[in-house]
Amino acid sequence: MDSILSIRNLTKIYRRSHLGRTTSTTGVKSLNLEINRGEILGLIGPNGAGKTTALKLILGLLFPTEGEIYLMGKKLPDPSVIQKVGYLPEVPYFPRNFSVEEVLYFYGRLSGIPESVVGGRTKEVLETVRMTRRKGRRVRECSKGMLQRLSLAQALIHDPELLIFDEPITGLDPVGLNEMREMIVALNKNGKTILFSSHIISEVERIAHRVGVMAGGEMVRQVSESEWRDKPGHLEQIFVQTIRERGAAEE
Amino acid sequence: MKFSNVVSLSRYTFIGNLRSKVFLVLILFGVFFLSVTFLLSVLGQEQELRILTDLGLASIEILALFTAIFLIVNLILEQIEQRTIYLVLTRSVTRAEYLMGSYLGTLAAIFLCVAAMAGLNVAILLWKGWDIRQDGLFYFASVALSFEKIALISAVGLFFSLFSSSGVVALVFTFFVWTAGHFMEEVRFLLDKMTSAPLKAAFEAAYFVLPNFQYLNARDLAIVLQGDAPRFILDGSLYTLLYSSAALLLAYAAFRKKEF
Predict the structure, then answer these.
(1) Helices B95-127 and B21-41, interaxial angle, to 10°?
(2) A112: nearest CA in chain B?
(3) Which of A59, A93, A112 sits opposite B82 (nearest CB)?
(4) What is the tens place of the pLDDT at every residue in B113-127?
């Protein structure tokens, strides 16, 4: 299969100095991962497992201590190729004094969309996330659900090939959860490759084609859909068993 | 560096600043300062125009300084704290473009603030019978040089904010540099009188590292305007450009490897 993202031996060690003492914490340790074009890959793991660190390393918000990341064959960081990635953060962070439309216009321009096209593209994306009627609303006046949809819209504005979602379903109400699930599946059907992290295993089971189980900064197991298909709740069993086995091995 | 990214970021920063409460409060303070200047000028009787000009120019510079320090020090620190920086840096935007766009956008907002205040001050002066043909050149050159000082100190403030990662520390350091920068001629005078070698070395280092605002001092402009004023303005502008570029390069060095 055609690999879109390749992570090789990725390690991130956080070093903090305070009063002459340096402490080290391992965020991610020797991570190897391949994501194929058209795939939905879910990253699951307990708190502090290294899911967000791994995503931030791909996005260039953190720098690796060791290892390499290749996106579409190009070694990161590379501004030309990162343009093909859309990122949805765990919590939507937007400048509060801008309107929904202004936010999308701004991110569109920064994503390399020409001035003559960005207006039309903003309209399309607003329609996709069903926010056309709210386009004039200031960010500070938006509800949590609206912010989540705006967050998705900014990730889609430049029509990226790879979408990276950090905890996209955390904190959503049942309606929002259902909408987000449908959106992820629809985007994938339209050819987008999706990498996402989540705590909600029952949802991951319904969305993902493949799952990576992370613990203590390491990828401890990769599970393909065939292992849990037609067995509701089985992914959770696999996850719990994997984490327990790892805990026992560490002891 | 991609020019369109710098323009987009400048525009976004400019609009964001104009809509921020801090900016509006500072503008109101500016109007208040100029109103006080107007009242004080009455005390000057036959020197009324001079007081209006001098206090007006001083008010513009001080207010521009406060606007610059508050906006620039919080510029990136606030975006890091609110995490709005995530969605910018995860696009095809280099850190140099981000820094340059944010700096220029803030300078544009400060320029607007300076222009608005100068406009108000000029209106008051004209109403009081000021002869713009006679004194206009000095006045506008003074405003331009004040703005250059602000551009320079903004670059220094940006460096401190990224180097220290603390708004308060950056604010204190920037204010110190601003104050010290106005006493460089005095430092030079002291250097000649000093006998202690380590102290002399420390003052010498300060003299060469800190900005010398004497090159942009509008008070001296009144004297040199009789002589080679364009040269004074050109040298000052070149000094601003070089010093600001050096400060921005240092800011970039501090920001280049920053993690979020």
Answers:
(1) 30
(2) B92
(3) A93
(4) 999 999 999 998 998
